[in-house]
């Protein structure tokens, strides 16, 4: 298979490793080309990966005739995603775009429509934490009726200092500039959070009832542009494809003066389940009532995660392109999850509710 990576920055290196790993595991012959407008970045990339063919112009890299299984990975800052994705689609290639998919809902829809029209797949790297054994266990308990009717999900991931562009990857200051990043911690980590919830609970429509975005200050704040949020909260009312509507209380921070906190909890009328979908261990806690008292059973998920989460977008998307079963979020599903994120910003800005429906992203 032929892979074309646009952007030779931090995440592009992980994509090359993922492609190499996937190719060996699947006995597939793969070639990798990479393009970056920054020649110093490109030079250092080629030192690390001498087998990768390097280009300073993405257009020149994509000029050769396309083959149906070609994949272009857009691994640049968000303000370039739409233009580069459209360029790759126009060149007749499937596109796996880094998260966040786009800068706003209009851009995301334009990208999906172009992919649909060209008969290629568009996927988003928000799928990094999908298909994991721990989420499957939670789903199994829910479908077995262990928690009864779900009425509330609490999804809280609060870190005190983990701002991309400051504490993490300080060389990439674009993370702090809304005109380049599209948003702050919500666009950085929210794609994973919402994709996880979407996979687990099979959303059909989401109303963002209210939301807020704040930038707590520190004495290490850079003097360059810094106009994104580092702490976000939202109250979502969700209709799933099956079952009753439920609430999602969502909160994420990469900077707060409050306490660090990680809680993912699903509360139903008969029981509640808590688990850590990221790197927090392999236990699922189920609490139900026994003789009027809460009783907790701890399930240890023995099945190992088969893939490095950072490799999953390439693995899942390559499988989808080859017509194999895959948890990949592509086409309107990728746009739907993105639109919920964009809807949270819209609601925070307008102070009003914003409704996002799955049918709203059906491509004509
Ligand atoms: N760094 C991470 O850990 C990480 C993890 C997951 C996802 N991502 C996502 O990946 C994307 C890239 O992030 P990064 O951390 O690799 O950024 P980075 O700053 O390390 O690299 C971005 C690269 O894109 C290049 N570039 C910009 N415009 C270009 C264009 N028009 N054509 C070709 N190259 C261009 C830049 O020169 C730069 O080398 C972002 O959407 C980010 O959210 C990053």
TrEMBL record:
Keyword flag Lipoprotein: no
Residue ranges annotated for the Gfo/Idh/MocA-like oxidoreductase N-terminal domain, each copy included: 2-122
Keyword tRNA-binding: no
GO MF term (any one): oxidoreductase activity
Pfam families reported for this sequence: GFO_IDH_MocA, GFO_IDH_MocA_C3
SUPFAM superfamilies for this protein: Glyceraldehyde-3-phosphate dehydrogenase-like, C-terminal domain (SSF55347), NAD(P)-binding Rossmann-fold domains (SSF51735)
Domain (GFO/IDH/MocA-like oxidoreductase) ranges: 136-242
Protein name as it appears in the record: Putative dehydrogenase
